[in-house]
Amino acid sequence: MKPPRRIFLQLTPLLDLMMIIMFAQAIQMNQTAGREISHANRTAEREIALAAQARDEARALSEHAQRLADALEVRLEAQARSNERLIQENERLRDELELARLEKQEVESQIRGQIGRVGALASQMLGISEQSLDSMLEMIDLEDAKSLRNEFEELQAKSAAEIIRHLRKMDVLQKKCDIWEAHIAGDNTLRFTVRGEIAAENLFVASAADIQAKLMELLPLEEPKSLVLVIFSYAGEAARKTRRDAQAGLQSLCNTLYNAYDRRKRFEFAPINLVVETP
Known about the structure:
It is a single chain. This protein is of the alpha/beta class. The chain has a domain at 110-275. The chain is built from seven helices and five strands. The protein has helices spanning 11-126, 130-136, 142-155, 160-169, 171-176, 208-218, 240-260; strands spanning 178-184, 189-194, 197-204, 227-235, 266-275. Strands 3-2-1-4-5 form a five-stranded mixed β-sheet, sandwiched between helices. A hairpin with a 2-residue loop joins β2 (189-194) and β3 (197-204). The longest helix has 116 residues, at 11-126. It starts with 10 loop residues before the first helix and ends with a strand.
């Protein structure tokens, strides 16, 4: 039997190989660690840069917000001052409005007083009803009321013919109403005037119905003002029957027209009656 064969191993080369492998692994680990450290450093640097950028942006936003807040505060202060001025202006205007209201009341009171005196004079001189006077004097201002009062006061001392002539020229009266005139001359003929224009003359008065029909044909086509003053006068030589028929015809004409216009317009018969001279 052969004796077992002995195997001899050379350990030195193995140890060298192991040392090489370990050294290589150590180098590889160092390189990997270096790369990781470098990556970590770059990451940290980026994060630091981003943090610095965010800090700068936050600071800029904070400064911008502060500027906006300061500007808003300035605007609010200016608005508060403006509101205060507006409040003061509003109070001033309210005081002026109250003063104007009181002045208006005073003027209206004066107008009512003047109109009352005008109405009394006109009613006394022309026999016009208060309702018609109210219509004529509606919306009249203080100056016109004073003017009317003064003119009617002056008319009290004038003759009937002068009164009629003056009524034709009263601007305030012309604005408020139409004036129609019917005058019977000494020869018993009638002259009819509308708004200062002679519509007809030398009309024969046969009866009240006759003169009413004749005058209806002479009226203008356009609508009259809301008040029509129909002035009636006659000469001293006019016959009583003629006067009576003419007066009745005119009064009937006023009533007929009043109803024809659905009572929207007033026709006021104003008898001046006897006049010494032709108006």
